[in-house]
Structure formats: C-alpha cells, structure tokens
Amino acid sequence: MAFRFNFSIDENENNEPDTHDKTDLQLHSPKHKRESTEKSKQTADTVADSSPRLGTDKQRDETPSKKKFCFKAAKEHNIPEDLNKILENKVMETVSDLYYVNMSVVEMACLDGADGEGIVSKSVSSHSDLIPGVYEGGLKIWECTFDLIDYFSEAEIQFTNKTVLDLGCGAGLLGIVALRGKAANVHFQDYNSTVIDEITLPNAVANCMKAGNRMGSGDDKKTSKPPLKRPRKAECLPDVLTKCRFFSGEWSEVSQLLLSSNKPFSKYDLILTSETIYNPEYYGALHDALAQLLDKNGRVYLASKAHYFGVGGGIYLFEKFIEEKNVFRTRIVKIIDKGLQRCIMEMAFKDSS
C-alpha cells in the first residue's frame, strides 16, 4: 500500500494490516518481529538478496581493486524549518510501524531534476547498483538491514540514552529503530547527498512526525495502512528529531568533520552498519572511521553477506582484515543460511570492558 501526502503524518489507530504491492516496489521490507523473520525474508529476497551489480561495459571492466578510493567531501545536512516541504509529493510505505519513501517515486523525481549528483541517471545508464566513488547503493535497502533489525530484537540490544551512528545509512531504518528505542542522539551518514536529502531525511521526518509521537516507545507494530485523512501541517520541530544529525560524504571526511566541528560531539556508544563491506578497497577507511568515532567501550554491529560476488568483499575477508589491524576484537553473533549466507558481526576495541 502506498500513499501520497504533502504535510505531516497522523496516525489511524484502526488501520488494518497492509499487503504491499510487490510488483510496484523496488524496496521490499520484512517485518522485524522474530516470529515473522522467515516469511519476511522471502519477500526481501526477490529484490535485495543478490550482490550489488557493478554495471556493464566500463564499470564491469574497471574492478574496485583498480579504482582509487574517492575522498568525497563531507557535508552536514541541516533539517529545514519547513518539515512539510521535505515530505511534499513523497509517496510513503509502512512496515513494522516504520515509514519509508517509495524508491521508484524518488527515482522518477531525481530523473526530473531533483538529483544534483546525477546518481540516478548514472545508475540507470550503467545498469549498476554501484558506481565506486560515484554512487554507493543508497537507493536500495538491502536485506541485511532487516537481518540486523531482527537481531536487535532477538538480542534485546538496548538503545536507551545511547549515542548512535547509522553508518552508510541509506534509508536510515537502523537509526530510526534506535530512535524508537529511546536513543539519546542518532546520526545518519551516507556517501551520497542525494540519498540523505531525498530518502534519509524524509524517512526520519515521517517517523518523527507521527501523531502522538510514539517514537521511543520500543513497541513492535504490525504493518498497517497509512492514515485515511490528510493530517495537519507541522508547526514545530518534533522533539525526537532534535536528536538527529545528517551527514553525507566519504567516511574519513565525515570523521574529520565531526571531530573538528565546533558543535558538541560525543563518540558513539553504538555504530550500526549494513552491507558496507562489499568493496575491499574501502576496508581501510571503514576501519579508521570506526576506530576514530567509536567510544572506548562502544560496540559496532555490522551486517553483511558472506561474500559479494562480482565485487569481492564479504564478512570473512573483512574479519581477517580487522584481525590483522589488531585494534578491534570481533565475533560473529548470528549466521543466516537461507539463500546467500549472511552474518552479523559485533566489534569492540580489544582493550574495552
């Protein structure tokens, strides 16, 4: 079920469960209750279960190992005063009481001029999910995101009063779940500014503007229909949204921006990241960002496929890389064997408690 709205979001408590039109969605989202995991994974598998495609022709010939890492400048994206403008003409979907923008509509808007980076047209023309150094996959939600959301529930991960970074956030669902879990602050980072402006920010705003502001309740809700009546305009910034900051750019650049900023900054208690280790060329930058930004007693939760065919990375290769660096200790806390093997890794500093 999709709906279009131009203002804030109201909540209809009498909504019935919603069945998504699978033919219209690029993004298939499973529910994150433990008992529905297997059924929801079958839905997600139809779209986001394969390794990212590097494209054809030039992209395919020029593998990641031959490309130089691109240091894309970091930028903080301020939350506009007019929140209704962020949601204008957006078509939203719901799953497990989370709102997210319909990616197909976003792509159409981007092709019509909303994409200053040109990543959508480049992705379409190259038939590619990834263009290293140009577009890093944020227009899709990959299935490991839902694996990690499931794990949060299963392992009873606590977000209350924690500072959280959703690294390589894309749609930002991991960070939004942390907000729901009463995190003190949540920061979102994606490589592409278009992803932050057109996907992450609208998703965060939509979830924070629900009537009654149930964010932070920690309750798992079933997929429901969108509100039946057009809601009121938002008159002020929802309190929960003041906990959020949004950044685009390459990891080392974002790290430098955070650490050198005049704004107050505390290192993160939790860093959440999904499907960010597909390219071995990025391992050094990712490792350094984690080392610089994680609190001394913090934890990283990373979800990944065992191997990314055609791209080269994977959980075990990354685990070996981390072991050789000798900064973090790691453990695989969950293995999902359905379809392509997927894993969840926990990381902490070796000298942490």
From TrEMBL:
Residues 55-65 have a biased composition (Basic and acidic residues). Its main location: cytoplasm. It is found in: Cytoplasm; Nucleus. Residues 1-65, 212-231 are annotated as: Disordered. The keyword Nucleus applies. One of its GO terms (biological process) is methylation. Belongs to the methyltransferase superfamily. METTL18 family. This is protein-histidine N-methyltransferase. It comes from Mycteria americana.
